[in-house]
Amino acid sequence: MGEVKGFLKYERLELKKESVKVRVKHYNEFSKPLSEDELKSQGARCMDCGVPFCQSGCPVDNLIPEWNDLVYNNKWEDAAERLLSTNNFPEFTGRVCPAPCENSCVVGINMPAVSIKSIEKAIIEKAFEHGYIKPKLPKVRTNKNVAIVGSGPAGLATADQLNKFGHTVTVYEKNEVLGGLLALGIPDFKLSKNIIARRTDLMKAEGINFKTNSNIGVDIKISELQDKFDAVVLCGGAEAPRDLKVEGRELNGIHFAMDFLKQQNRRNGNRKISNNEISAKGKNVVVIGGGDTGSDCIGTSIRQGAKSVINLELMPQSPKERASNNPWPEWAFIDRASTSHEEGCEREFAVMTKAFIGSNGNVEKLKLVRLKFGHPNSKTGRREMTEISNSQFEIEADLVILALGFLGHQQNNLLSELKISTDQRSNVIADNKYMTSVDGIFTAGDMHVGQSLVVRAINEGRNVAESVDMYLR
Ligand SMILES: Cc1cc2nc3c(=O)[nH]c(=O)nc-3n(C[C@H](O)[C@H](O)[C@H](O)COP(=O)(O)OP(=O)(O)OC[C@H]3O[C@@H](n4cnc5c(N)ncnc54)[C@H](O)[C@@H]3O)c2cc1C
Description:
Fumarate Reductase Iron-sulfur Protein, Chain B, domain 2, 3 domains, five-stranded parallel beta sheet, 33% helix, binds flavin-adenine dinucleotide
């Protein structure tokens, strides 16, 4: 532990950001790194509290107090080694993770938590910059082959781990680009795509085979993979979008969030997009859904030059501070305005969309109603929702983006050919070794647990790789 009373001496520092005025003119990342001295003092704020709640708050059990201390002591290469021992891709989580570790940091009980995420990002960026990260090929190959379907963070983590264990890995990806939602969902201003390419290039140099434009179940049957490989791991994500089936849904100008985000990510990468271009330029945009996906649509709409952006959320606004029934070290259910929200959108909470109204086949307005919520039900914890009488109102919209979450895996032949079992939420059912209802076929990530977080997908990938390794041995 660096400084015994560091947390009393130094204040928490956030990454500095470009001003809103500057950053909305481009799609690049806009946070600036802290200086080495600043990072050192941030590392010194870690109390090495004995029971590292941050570590158990982190889905990949990052050894946070250890690398905080190594950064404080200027041992960056050692810090990178410790970080990479639990997290395959800290360059992704250091940018997009909501940092559950910081929610459970002991300093966070009564003062701002240690800036764990900023330190994580700095360690991995320094490691790449100083050449600490070089392709490491396994010393021995096992002569076992594994096919992985999907190249999101779950598929990539699975591939990375299995390759380290010496197995020969081939990743099949239906899109033209690797990375799953990191590449085509999350915008460049949160995660630059060259960060993904830097990692996948390294993985290629370490011997992992990647096959893009390979839709399993369409271009290649899953039974062919079953015949050719010793094990198959399905990491196909949870892509089926939740729809809003109200009056007027058929009008032009109403789109699913991923259709909108994928286009902009492809445009930024100078890649082909469909003829049906969706643009927010000069439009009154309404984004329905207050999560990460909705927030990414807001930032993208603003950069495209929207006239106005309104974000609608069904649930009431969360409190600014933890409620008494939501104590540390739990995840804090507080209002988190994202950087995209800061860029100029109006937020409406506790409203429900009753209908879309339009003329000549195009959407023009939304009919909304305000909601009130009762006390949480003692059994389910859910709060009963009722419409407030005479609270209907309308707002203008030329473009409506539906960011209402996802309903499991997009159904196709990938699962049906071998009758792989799914649950009521369309998630693939697996046993505690991550094996599906079919012997030798495993699953991980959002396809297994439903739409979640990058860090959880990495954790799932690491776990399934352990199980596949045991199975093959
Ligand atoms: C817009 C958006 C923003 C998000 N922002 C954040 C964030 O800021 N922080 C965070 O932690 N999480 C965020 N998430 C959630 C996070 O991205 C996911 O939880 C994570 O990517 C899941 O990883 P995965 O590998 O399981 O699936 P995915 O990333 O969905 O990858 C699945 C891959 O499988 C491929 N695939 C599917 N079927 C086939 C097939 N039949 N053949 C071949 N390939 C196939 C898909 O094309 C895709 O590339 C966000 C999600 C969305 C939608």
